[in-house]
Design goal:
The complex is a heterotrimer. By secondary structure, chain A is an alpha+beta fold. In chain A, 30% of the residues lie in helices and 23% in strands. Chain A is built from 16 helices and 19 strands. In chain A, helix 9 (288-297) packs antiparallel against helix 11. Chain A starts with a helix and ends with a strand. Chain B is mainly α. Chain B has helices at residues 4-39, 43-49, 57-67, 73-85, 99-134, 139-153, 156-170, 182-212, 215-222, 227-264, 270-280, 283-311. In chain B, helix 7 packs across helix 8 (182-212) and helix 11 runs antiparallel to helix 12. By secondary structure, chain C is of the alpha/beta class. In chain C, a hairpin with a 5-residue loop joins strand 15 and strand 16. The chains are: A alpha+beta, B mainly alpha, C alpha/beta. Chains A and B meet through helix 1, helix 7, helix 13 and helix 14 of A and helix 2, helix 3, helix 5, helix 7 and helix 11 of B. Chain C: It is an enzyme of class 7 (translocase).
Chain lengths: 510, 318, 603
């Protein structure tokens, strides 16, 4: 399979580099942009999904009270301003006026209250999104354009969370009329209006000329669902697609796009981080020295350069450099195979001790990286084997049930860019992703930062958590991969979003 | 005419047996698939796993209750069977769309792809196979056999990509993916057609070689019939039984192969539906797709049986 | 004979596959209205000759090394395939050996016959169908209009061969080539077909080439005979000359090997006869003449009483049987040690079923089978297993019954191992060698494989294998039918020698009455699963009592052109033995008209 894949890439590259005639760009109607997303989320209702593919599209249909653009700053969205009251247990939002939903309904405090009552009520209980907003106790209408969010505890990440996913404001009347049909006929206040949705094929939007943030500069915006990377790239090459949204393009295909004169690759550090977590319950990895030895045997810098073509950066704790809580000072264990051998000897590990690494079979990069890790570990006298699992099986069965080998792949792409979101799920006792850990000290640290509204204070604790995890060597931290976009040069003013939530109201096309 | 009441009864018996068979097949296959897929993944976890959601056991319980996956397996399966009988296949776990709607949208796409591919392969493999049989051991036969050998070892994924490179990117003639215009059918069906032809051409050749040994072929020649009449009228019809049997079996096998073709060409068919359903552990959709596929295969068997009778009077229902 | 140009003249024809010459320097002529028989055994090139005239050899990959095939002033050897297509089926037509496979199973009989008419004659479909009807009536097929719509599988072998003749005659050809047209048919049907062909030839004035290995058929049909041997013509002449005064040694050996019905008149017991064989191209008489007085009538070895075998043919929806084939209905007979009992009959007579039931290849619904007085029903499974050793079976097709991947030595030793007769490996090898020599093969062949042997040698190997388990009874089911006559004569003598030496009993199942007359002590004539007549060979052949036996005997072609047969016109088909449940055939009683001579009553 791997050889075949390489062959295809070589072929694609050859064609691209050879500069063989490209299909002339089809004559689109003025201002149409077509984007490929890797998946059909199947429902456009904000409460139903965590899929990045949903957010990539829905950012253009809906708005939240806050907005976080590619610069990662939290700025006003449908709320013009806000203030924290009652020591962070109440947030008061002043809403934007004269905003209308696509169906003509007026946006007001009523709509905000409806949105959150729905999310936290029976309707929201069916979906996964509610779990991110459980700190909200109630939403109170102060006047038609003022609402108070009453919290059961301060939630420092809430303003970020209000910028995406489940917090997208929906039109009350329309949702009540439509019921389940809302899934397939979304209406928001966003820059683009829904036109049609064809399951597994595409969703079509048109410009909302009355958008409060100014009319979009393109007239039509179409999204096609293409999961196969080579297909998406072929469509891009053929000029039938203008933007390929991550995670679609594998690193190995970058040269193909770079070789085409009418295309470019835009990559930014994204939220996705990869690590190999240790099994701390059974086997040799229960020994701290062994875990440290394994970390020291792997040269991550080489992996990033050689395998990932520089489209990633090394990490020391399980988060992106953009993440709140990231500690640039934190030093990880160095690459030191000799030291690793010594540690293994001290731990009394015999030569050729077996070690199983569980990874996601469809993760092309990880499949290659794992091979390299195997050779690094062999170099220090271990005998690792790779066990690929179907992703669904790995994450919904093998990991939660604690059926993994000595090491298993953890991949995380929390859109909030807040270490709390990741660390709590990864290290708190009883969490799905944490089948083996049971550390009261870690639990205490994780719990202690949650109510803190003082950003500096909280950041300190998060850094402390990062250091604690590194000291305990709970995982072999690997890298933070870039979000890779393939973009046609006919698209101007394109700014890549680290979190894939690509708002396209500012772009223009030739 | 005198025998018509008897014939009617036999046809009824036959259909009754086929229906029983279909029910049996659907139950066995869906039972197996439903059980197996539940062993290896949880749709609730998959919902959170898309990105960035922390999930507590309570969250999972809540979602499981909403989906109904907290109930024991036999109850869930019983619900599914009840749904089959009442033609209500439930709603997709992913997005809550009615499953029947998803199937109704996807099935025709797959069927069109499958039938056109089959047609492409038959149109290619029969003349080639006959040509190979007639020129046994000569250059044409060798060429066709080499084509067949190479074709069988083509991964369909690779072949599809090569076609895309040639026709979409180098020549700019055909759309690289998607279903729509006539042009969009060419590459997917050609890919599948070539791969099927690679095996079929050998089969046609073998069946034809055997038939060409028959005395009635000699008799047909002795009548003074032209070679094309001997081959395409007398011999081909006698090869039809093994060929129809094989094409029927192949149809079932092909539905599996179409998953890859559908993915590569972003074809909105049952394969894509099943693929996404497996990834999301979307049980209602998966069960429905499997059921439809099983019924399709039963239907193809039925068509094969009818075709037997049409081409070979010895097998006609009496 | 005449000065006019013959219809067909084959001159110095050599046909080869690559360098392998299958026909060499062959010349003969056929006059209009004349029947030329081309006679020979397998490998003589007689079939290749007929295919060459039609130029159908091209499709088989053969080519002409030399010679001409002059037909109506044209040399067919030089004609293009396109020219040949207008001749084939039109001016020269052909009938093939296997009526079961010469008709295309997926087209109606009418379509297949009219195809040639539509091809060669510029007529409408309606006219063509009308002609087909006439043709079918001409070959005496009843209900022609209905028959046209039938498919080949709905017709019996005889009907198919008649349809085939109708097809060949569709365009009134000037020359008809018939390649073994009756070999696969039962004798009564053969007699009908031969009569039809003779009549039609006379009527149409065709020239006819009749290819056959059966000297009886030659004597009945031919004006002129061409004898072929190993691809060459060794002798030709008018038919009476050939039979009365054969010149070539091969012709002489061929004629001496042919069993002739009635040649044993007045003999009480079967007789082993000396054989003329070719040695270095010279005929030589080998073997002794001996009366086969081997029967010991104290206690029967095998005793069959009221054997009844039925097959369920069709079931209704509830699985209840609606139609049954009564293969064997209450058949009783005894076989004594050293005796040969022949079971004769046509297709569907149940003769093979009886053999298979005794060999326990099949179960009887009722009846008792006893071996040396002990019934199968009373035997333990160990005893039944021993029966498989004592009763051996030899099949018609020796090639199909030998494993092609095992050496013949292995195949012969197999029953020895199965029944644990000899433990010592060396002794087994010795025994295998002994058996091979016993059946007239050198012991060295034990390490060879079946495909290295000829048909006759393979049948000898099968006999050796049967002998390996020291049987008391051998059931030989059409064991001679697939063999050439000269080989057949040798195997008959082998059977008789083994009987004389080892005291074997044979249940000899055959449709060939001449062979039966020569080698059996007693004969049972079967028809539709019942015995019509049973008695000593003299009683059956000389005091023939049952009409069916008479009919059967009269149908056998006599290998003597001087023999003037009483023209008994045999009509009708062999009835279908499948009956509805509840409509079982009546069981006929028997009268003993003289000691040991039983004849079925009534019917």
């Amino acid at each position: 399979m791997k050889i075949i894949r390489r062959g295809i890439l070589a072929g694609l590259t050859a064609v691209a580099l050879g500069g063989v005639s490209f299909a002339t760009v089809p004559a689109y109607a003025e201002g149409t942009v077509t984007v490929s997303v890797p998946q059909d989320p199947a429902s456009w209702d904000p409460i139903d999904t965590f899929l990045v593919a949903w957010a990539a599209v829905a950012t253009n249909i809906y708005d939240g009270l806050t907005y976080r653009g590619p610069d990662m700053e939290i700025v006003p969205g449908l709320a013009e301003s806000w203030e924290e009251l009652d020591d962070g247990k109440r947030i008061r939002f002043k809403l934007r006026q004269n905003v209308k939903f696509h169906n003509g309904e007026e946006f007001n405090a009523e709509a905000v209250k409806f949105t959150f009552d729905r999310l936290l009520g029976d309707e929201g209980a069916k979906g996964p999104q509610r779990s991110n907003y459980t700190s909200i106790e109630s939403v109170e209408i102060i006047d038609p354009f003022t609402v108070d969010f009453k919290l059961n505890a301060p939630d420092p990440v809430l303003l970020t969370k209000l910028a995406g996913y489940g917090a997208m404001i929906v039109p009350p009347k329309y949702v009540q009329e439509q019921g389940e049909a809302f899934n397939l006929n979304p209406v928001g206040t966003g820059a683009f209006k829904f036109v049609s949705y064809n399951p597994k094929v595409d969703i079509k939007l048109e410009a909302n000329p009355d958008y409060w943030g100014g009319a979009p500069k393109i007239s039509e915006l179409n999204y096609r669902f293409i999961s196969e990377p080579s297909t998406a790239v072929a469509e891009l090459q053929a000029g039938r697609i203008d933007i390929v949204v991550p995670p679609t393009i594998p690193i190995a295909m970058i040269p193909v796009i770079e070789g085409a004169s009418n295309l470019e690759v835009v990559s930014v550090p994204g939220p996705t981080v990869d690590a190999l977590r240790f099994n701390t319950r059974d086997g040799i990895t229960t020994d701290l020295k062994v875990r440290q030895a394994i970390i020291m045997s792997v040269d991550r810098a080489t992996i990033v350069e050689a395998i990932l073509a520089g489209q990633a950066s090394e990490i020391v704790s399980f988060q992106s450099a953009l993440s709140f809580g990231h500690d640039p000072e934190l030093q990880g264990l160095p690459y030191d195979p000799e030291g690793a051998k010594k540690l293994l000897a001290e731990a009394g590990i015999p030569q050729g001790a077996p070690l199983q690494i569980d990874i996601r079979s469809n993760d092309a990069s990880m499949n290659e990286v794992a091979q390299v890790i195997v050779s690094y570990l062999q170099a220090v006298g271990l005998n690792p084997t790779i066990k690929p699992y179907e992703t669904s099986t790995l994450i919904s069965d093998i990991i939660p049930q604690g059926k993994t080998g000595a090491m298993f792949q953890q991949k995380w792409g929390g859109w909030t860019f807040d270490y709390d979101n990741t660390a709590y799920a990864m290290y708190h006792t009883g969490e799905q992703w944490n089948p083996y850990g049971n550390d009261p000290e870690l639990d205490r640290l994780l719990e202690s930062q949650r109510p803190l509204t003082d950003r500096n204070e909280r950041e300190k604790v998060l850094k402390e958590i990062g250091k604690y995890v590194a000291d305990q060597a709970l995982e072999l931290p690997l890298y933070n991969t870039n979000a890779i976009y393939g973009v046609s040069k006919r698209v101007k003013n394109f700014v890549a979003a680290p979190d894939n939530r690509l708002k396209l109201n500012e772009i223009t096309v030739e | 005419m005198r025998r018509s009441p008897l014939r009617g009864r036999i046809v009824a018996t036959y259909l009754f047996k086929r229906i029983l068979q279909a029910i049996f097949v659907v139950i066995v296959i869906t039972l197996f698939v439903s059980y197996a897929v539940r062993l290896t993944g949880d749709p609730a976890v998959m919902m959170f796993a898309g990105g960035g959601g922390s999930m507590s056991e309570a969250d999972l319980e809540r979602v499981r209750a909403a989906l109904g996956t907290d109930k024991p397996f036999y109850l869930q399966y019983f619900e599914f069977l009840k749904g089959l009988v009442t033609f209500d296949l439930g709603r997709s776990f992913a997005g809550g769309a009615p499953v029947s709607g998803l199937i109704a949208a996807a099935a025709p796409s797959t069927l069109k792809l499958a039938f056109v591919s089959m047609l492409v392969s038959i149109v290619m493999s029969i003349p080639l196979g006959i040509w190979a049989a007639v020129s046994r051991g000569k250059a044409a036969d060798q060429m066709i056999r080499i084509f067949s050998l190479v074709g069988v070892s083509f991964p369909n994924f690779w072949l599809a990509t090569m076609l895309v490179l040639l026709f979409s990117i180098a020549l700019g003639l055909l759309p690289p993916s998607g279903m729509g215009s006539f042009e969009s059918y060419i590459m997917p069906t050609l890919t599948m057609g070539i791969i099927l032809t690679a095996t079929n051409v050998r089969l046609v050749r073998t069946a034809m070689l055997e038939t060409l040994q028959s005395q009635y072929v000699m008799v047909a020649r002795a009548k003074g019939l032209s070679e094309s009449k001997v081959l395409y009228k007398h011999a081909l019809r006698n090869c039809a039984i093994p060929l129809i049997t094989y094409f029927g079996l192949q149809f079932g096998g092909m539905l599996g192969g179409l998953v890859v073709i559908e993915k590569v060409f972003s074809w909105p068919g049952l394969g894509t539906l099943a693929f996404d359903a497996v990834n999301a552990r979307d049980y209602p959709v998966l069960q429905a797709v499997i059921t439809v596929l099983a019924l399709l295969i039963v239907a193809v068997n039925l068509i094969v049986d009818i075709a037997y009778g049409l081409v070979d009077p010895r097998i006609r229902l009496e | 004979m005449t000065t006019q140009t013959p219809l067909l003249s084959v001159e110095d024809l050599t046909v080869a596959f690559g360098e392998n010459r299958v026909v060499e320097n062959l010349s003969f002529t056929v006059e209009a209205g004349q029947t030329v028989a081309v006679v020979g055994e397998s490998g003589s090139g007689k079939s290749m000759t007929s295919l060459s005239i039609m130029r159908l050899t091209d499709n088989l990959g053969a080519h002409f090394k030399s010679g001409k095939i002059m037909f109506e002033g044209r040399d067919l050897a030089q004609a293009t395939q396109k020219e040949m297509r207008s001749i084939r089926g039109n001016e020269i037509a052909m009938i093939f050996q296997e009526p079961m496979t010469s008709l295309n199973p997926v087209f109606t009989v009418g379509d297949q016959i009219s195809e040639a008419i539509l091809l060669h004659e510029n007529v409408s479909r309606a006219v063509a169908e009308d002609k087909v009807r006439q043709l079918l009536e001409m070959v005496r097929l009843p209900d022609a209009a209905n028959l046209m719509k039938r498919y080949p599988h709905q017709l019996s072998g005889g009907m198919r061969q008649r349809a085939m003749i109708a097809m060949a005659l569709a365009c009134r050809p000037k020359l008809l080539i018939a390649d073994e047209p009756t070999t696969a048919l039962d004798v009564t049907i053969q007699a009908q077909i031969l009569t039809i062909m003779r009549d039609l030839q006379r009527e149409l004035g065709m020239g006819m080439i009749f290819i056959t290995h059966d000297m009886g058929v030659v004597a009945e049909m031919a004006d002129h005979v061409v004898v072929m041997w190993k691809g060459r013509k060794v002798e030709e002449g008018p038919v009476r000359e050939i039979f009365a005064n054969p010149q070539h040694p091969y012709t002489r050996t061929l004629l001496s090997a042919v069993p002739r019905l009635g040649s044993m008149k007045g003999e009480r017991l079967p007789k082993r006869r000396p054989l003329t064989v070719l040695e270095d191209g010279q005929p030589k008489v080998v073997g002794e003449e001996r009366v086969q007085d081997t029967v010991r009538t104290d206690e029967p070895l095998l005793s069959v009483e009221d054997m009844l075998v039925r097959f369920d043919i069709r079931k209704n929806f509830f699985g209840k049987v609606t139609h049954r084939l009564s293969a064997v209905s209450k058949v009783s007979f005894d076989v004594y040690p050293g005796e040969t009992l022949a079971l004769v009959g046509e297709s569907g007579s149940g003769k093979s079923t009886i053999g298979r039931t005794i060999q326990q290849l099949q179960r009887a619904q009722s009846g008792v089978i006893r071996v040396r007085g002990k019934s199968f029903a009373d035997m333990s499974s160990a005893e039944l297993f021993k029966m498989r050793q004592e009763v051996q079976y030899i099949f018609q097709d020796p090639f199909a019954s030998l494993d092609p991947r095992k050496t013949v030595g292995f195949s012969i030793a197999e029953p020895i191992h199965t029944h644990g007769l000899i433990g010592d490996r060396k002794q087994v090898t010795k025994r295998v060698h002994e058996l091979l020599e016993r059946v007239g093969l050198p012991s060295a062949v034990a390490s060879r494989y079946p495909h290295e042997f000829s048909g006759g040698q393979r049948q000898r190997i099968c006999i050796a294998r049967a002998l390996a388990s020291n049987p008391k009874l051998i059931i030989a089911d059409e064991a001679l039918s697939a063999l050439d006559v000269s080989i057949q004569a040798q195997i008959i003598n082998l059977f008789m020698d083994l009987q004389a030496d080892l005291g074997l009993s044979y249940l000899f199942i055959s449709h060939d009455l001449a062979v039966v007359e020569q080698m059996s002590h007693r004969v049972a004539v079967l028809y539709l699963g019942q015995i019509m007549e049973m008695g000593s060979r003299q009683q059956i052949f000389e005091q023939t009592s049952h009409p069916y036996t008479k009919r059967l005997l009269s149908a056998v072609p006599i290998a003597d052109p001087a023999f003037d047969r009483a023209e008994i016109r045999i009509e009708g088909e062999i009835p279908n033995p499948v009956r509805r449940v509840g409509d079982e055939p009546a069981i006929l009683g028997h009268d003993e008209i003289s000691p040991g001579h039983f004849v079925a009553r009534g019917a």
